[in-house]
Amino acid sequence: MNGTGAPALHVGCAMWSLKAWQGRFLPHPATAEERLRAYAGWCNAVEGNTTFYATPARATVATWAQQTDPDFRFVAKLPKLITHERRLIGADAELRAFLDAVEPLGPRNHAVWLQLPSSFGPSDVPVLAAFLRGLPAGHRYAVEVRHRAFFDEQRSARLLEDVLTAANAEWVPFDTRVLFRSPPTSDAERETWTRKPRMPYRSRALTDQPIIRYLGRDDTAATVEGWQPWVETVTGWLREGRSPTVFIHTPDNADVPELCRRFHDEVRARVPELRPLPEPEPVEPLTLF
């Protein structure tokens, strides 16, 4: 929910800074703080992918909070040491360090995101259940799984849903169908084909704050066409009183801040009472002189 208590839609990218955005969405030159502040004028959420590689310093996270409004949302990914190397076992100290580091975000900390490896399957669900039971209640949690059994086998899907529902945790879908619908047509798409999983479509929300990850193409028309089912789903969620968060990706990510706003506009055309996104500050274009 936003500050008014009404359902809200948060949209964002996988990062808040990209070289291709300089002089277009972000000022150039700019400090790290100025880039985040400028990004927060385009989008009101961001994926915390950097925390997957290392827990940030608490002081660094405090600067993230200072550069964003209380309505801005971070979805911070648990470090891979916890999810991939320890596989949720024997990482209590690392977990405490991570939760302490992100504490300065306050209300901006939308959810702690557990992205589990593709080898983490139905037989591992009891481990996930025990891990979720041991988590402090002061945070929301969201889980992304990539083992095909959770999508192809109804029994496995129900098993996972029951565990997540008991913990009031969300199941995060990663919709990559559009990318793999036809062969890649650019270097960025070819590289993304080798790195991203081929994930089935899933649109069932378990909580009042569902999270979607959507991967399109470098072609804007294909990306927009591919997200139309999500526009309808998100519209329905908002009318049910849920507050979704949608992250838009493309292989090169060159246009995603603009695409996020377009997605928000498409939903707002169907839900006029939805609060508009902030207006971005004008950015001076890059020059040769």
Automatic annotation (TrEMBL):
Organism, by scientific name, is Catellatospora coxensis
Put simply, this protein is called DUF72 domain-containing protein
Lineage: superkingdom = Bacteria
Pfam families linked: DUF72
The record, for InterPro entries, names:
DUF72 (IPR002763), UPF0759_sf (IPR036520)
